[in-house]
Amino acid sequence: DAKTTQPPSMDCAEGRAANLPCNHSTISGNEYVYWYRQIHSQGPQYIIHGLKNNETNEMASLIITEDRKSSTLILPHATLRDTAVYYCIVRGFQGAQKLVFGQGTRLTINP
Amino acid sequence: NAGVTQTPKFQVLKTGQSMTLQCAQDMNHNSMYWYRQDPGMGLRLIYYSASEGTTDKGEVPNGYNVSRLNKREFSLRLESAAPSQTSVYFCASSERASSGNTIYFGEGSWLTVV
Q: Taking a C-beta distance cutoff of 8 angstroms, is the pair A38, A85 a contact?
């Protein structure tokens, strides 16, 4: 699976959009980009995933660059409950049973 | 909709004792997984079951055994617990063990071995 790079920490004001970047420059054509978050050692919570196109669901939007080497997770109106560690994961056919969690980005939403 | 349910939530064991962590999912998923997470670290795959009747080792299988009891249930057994197995254990499931199928996690089981 391709390696991902995320900033270790970010801050965002409550009510503003939180934009979390992820670099995955070695991604291959059949690998998906997944985003999970973990709130203080609770179970990882699935947020969104995509292959090539931008995706949106009730939680977030995922913007993948045309060359697929990077992506951005957007939480449109961040709340205090969005404070968590966010993980960007690239997942391919080989070893698809395994999610490789890196260090993630610790997002803090400030009042 | 409960999703993935794990029991027990907390457990303290003495070195050498055995125990089984239970996991059940109600999403009719074919694939199930056991991960562990140590403090400040990412999750590591212990074992997984791609479908009922099959199990395979993950990254860190030593000291553990698993049983896929039926499509819903996947248990993890520690035969002789060691302090190095102190960790948070997460069970997970997905429709299939393929890259386009989302993996959903339970809330975790906190295990301390003294």
A: yes
pLDDT digits over A44-98, tens only? 999 999 999 899 999 999 999 999 999 999 999 999 999 999 999 998 877 767 7
Q: Which residues of B touch A51 (CB under 8 A)?
A: 100
Say yes or no: B38 contacts chain A, CB-CB below 8 A: no
| Distance from C-alpha of B63 to C-alpha of B27, rounded to nearest angstrom | 29
Best A28, A39, A97, A105 residue to mutate vs chain B (most B CBs within 10 Å): A97
A92 contacts in chain B (CB < 8 Å): 99
Query: For B40-85, how does the pLDDT look when each residue is reduced to its tens digit (9 = 90+)?
Result: 778 899 999 999 999 999 999 999 999 998 999 999 999 999 999 9
